[in-house]
């Protein structure tokens, strides 16, 4: 097991290495929709690319999630492994609407040998996801 300091250092090194390996300005929180963001997630057991809907107003959340559900088949054509989860529970217990693509290969942020595959997964998957969002952005925002 790693100490807190070693763990923090490895996580920082992982994200720094990803940024240097694939330098690009990602959309992430700049969707211009309150409470809607793209995220890269990596921990000791898994990695994923996410589209999180967590506006403070639950009705607004449902409306954005419904907009995305109406585009589900189109998104599945672009990214077949996409998962729609209406009740995704975060580690802190908060429940959000999450649309995500899990990294299918064995991964741990603490295993440097698994980093390169994850970086490539992040780059390819987030690029497709952002492109899809930008193509349908006006429709998604039209609630």
From TrEMBL:
Domain (DUF4268) ranges: 10-136
Protein known as: DUF4268 domain-containing protein
Origin species: Polaribacter marinivivus
